[in-house]
Task: inverse folding
């Protein structure tokens, strides 16, 4: 699932920057969206 990051964080030793769009597993994406650290990409 593609998400747009709302914060900068590390995920599996990869830097995910704020505003960047990344492909991550759906279960992780759902957790991040609930936590408001990412939003679903269109």
Result:
């Amino acid at each position: 699932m593609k998400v747009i990051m709302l914060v900068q964080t590390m995920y599996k030793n990869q830097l995910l920057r704020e505003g960047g769009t990344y492909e991550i597993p759906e279960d992780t994406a759902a957790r991040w969206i609930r936590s408001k650290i990412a939003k679903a990409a269109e």
